[in-house]
Each structure stands twice: as structure tokens, then as C-alpha cells.
Amino acid sequence: MSSSYLGAYPELLAEVSVTGRLPRRDELDALRVLGERAAEDGHRLREVVSLIVGETRALWGTLPGVTRAAGPAERARTGDAILAALEAAVGALGEGHEQARRLAVRQEEAERREFIDDLLHGRSDLGRLAERAQRFGLRLTHTHAVAVCEGHEQYDDVHPTVRRIERELVARFGDRDALLTTKDGRLVCIAASGDDRAVLNAFAVLAERPGPGYVAARRVALGREHTGPGGVVLSYEEALDAVHVADRLGLTSVRLTASELLVFPVLLRDRSAIADLVTTVLGPLTQARGGAEPLVRTLMACAQSGYVNAEAARRLGVGVRTLTYRLARIHALTGYDPGNALQRYTLETAAMGARLLGWPEEEF
């Protein structure tokens, strides 16, 4: 490390050895600037401290105050003054170094956040985005998939659960092609996909069961694999859509995959057609006592339980006789029999469409 980072410290030390004074404010400010410069040039604080302590040791025997000391008492006073100046100089250099590092970290965080926003929203030139990605450990020419975790509370970059998951993933996979971040209160993992999707699967397990004292995920959704920067955006949107669809349908599963829910975007692609199906098939349920909502909820519970009446009744919190009565009412009002395979499929599709469109709470 160059002695240029010492600035006027040798001259200061020589004067202190004679006068016994402490460094002045302007001298300490100059040392802080030198500490900042050393940090900006990539030198660690240990190197800076080692340089100044080594310089003090090398100069000690040549300092005028030391060579002119008349006796032990004067040499002791001179030595104490030199050490006090050294202590003040190390403190000033350290302050400057730490300040520069804090600024660098904040700038790095800002650049990382800007990159993530651009990446997940498909902004910026794709070639430039790929170049920036390498700095953050991603090679966007590869195939990637995105997992989104939504918790029972908002996640941010300093959330203990986020730090816990990040530590575990780094310990297991090191610098593998992956990036963990937060976005809009959710935890997002972008990883190169392979045959085993090891990183994303480990992320999902950790999000579901992060350990005692940490916030477990409410939903974890995995998007499909796609190539390039645009593929990351698409996989991220698929994962988000999976979370929204699961919430609309009231699915009980914590972990979801976009590939398993592809039918629902297809249903919503023709909104007018699905709205027509809902009103045509389920519209008569509004005539039931208590409205259509309990009967739509009954159809959804039956579908999710594989049409096992005892399990559907348990999910609804009602008796099997009550469930049987509701199914009979559905048949009577709509004309569709839940016991008939084809008619059951029509009822189930209409019920899912109703959930996706928010019917009967929302009119259309």
C-alpha cells in the first residue's frame, strides 16, 4: 500500500514529538479524506491501520522529540504524546474509511434495486440488462425460473426471515447463478433452472418452514422456465398470477406451480365467455335462501376434496347431511347434477370462473 495515503502524517508526528500537542481539526479532516480515498481505491481498513502504525514505528527513533529527550521522564511524555497522536490519526482514518464504505454500500443497494426493478418489469435495453446482471450473479443468457413467496407480513431486505433464507441458500449453493431479493413486500428468488431446480426447491422449503421465530410463507409460487431477460419477467408474472389465482379460488396449498394453474389464465382470456358461463349455470343459485355464495363455496369444497363428501363437509365445517342437502339444492336450482361426471365438470368450471371473477359479490 502506497505511503501517499499517509499525507502529512510524518510531519505531524515530528511536530507532536516536540510540542506534545494533539492533532488539530484540519489535520484530522485531512486524514479522514485519506481514509475515504483508501476505501474507494479498494484497500481494507486493516491495511490502512497497518500502514500508519508501521510508519509510526519506523519514524519513532528519528523523531526530534525522541532524539532530544533528556531523560526517562521526558522520553515517556514524548512517547505518550506520539501514541495519542497515533490514536487520533487511526480514528480519523477509520472514520473516513467507514464513511466511504457506507456510501459505497448504499450506492450498491440503490443500483441493485434499480436493476431488479428493471429486470422484473422488463424495462431497459435487454443487452444492457444482461451486462448489468452479471454484476449481481446472474447470466441471463441461461434459462431461469422465478419463485415468489408471500408471507403473513411484508418482507423487506432486512427482514430476519429474508436474512435466514439468504444465509441458508448461500451456505448450500454458494455463488450459483441465483439472486434473492424483495419486491412489493414479497420475497423473490431468481435462479438458473436445471433438471432438479435445486435452488428454487430449497427456497420453497425454507420459505414454508424457515424455523422457530421466523415468518412462514402464506404462499410460495414457482413460475415456469424461460430463456433470457424477457423470460425472467414472464416467469415472475406467472408466479404472481399463481398467487392471485390461488387466493381467488381459496386453495389451501401453500406451494403452487404456474404449470399446474395454466388452465385459469385460459379461462380468463375470454372474460365475456366465462362470465356468460357463470351467469347461465350458477345464476339460478341466487334464488336460494342465503344467496349463491354458500352453494358456490360448497362446489369448490367438493372439487378440492375430490368429491369425497365427508372431506368436503369437514372443510366447510358442516355435517354430511347438510352437504347432501346443498348438492340437491344445486341440482334443483341449476338443473345440473353434481353426481353426473359431465354436468359436474360444468358446475366446477363455472364455480372456478365465479371465484376468479369475484361473483356473486361483484356483478358483471
From TrEMBL:
Please give the superkingdom of this protein's source.
Bacteria
Residue span(s) of domain CdaR GGDEF-like: 122-245
Domain PucR C-terminal helix-turn-helix as annotated: residue spans: 295-350
| Transmembrane residue ranges | none
Where are the coiled-coil regions?
A: none
| Gene3D superfamilies reported in the protein's UniProt record | PucR C-terminal helix-turn-helix domain (1.10.10.2840)
Q: Which family does it belong to?
A: Belongs to the CdaR family.
PANTHER family under this entry? CARBOHYDRATE DIACID REGULATOR, DNA-BINDING TRANSCRIPTIONAL ACTIVATOR ADER
The molecule here is called: Helix-turn-helix domain-containing protein
Origin species, per record, is Streptomyces chumphonensis
Q: What is the lineage of its organism?
A: Bacteria, Bacillati, Actinomycetota, Actinomycetes, Kitasatosporales
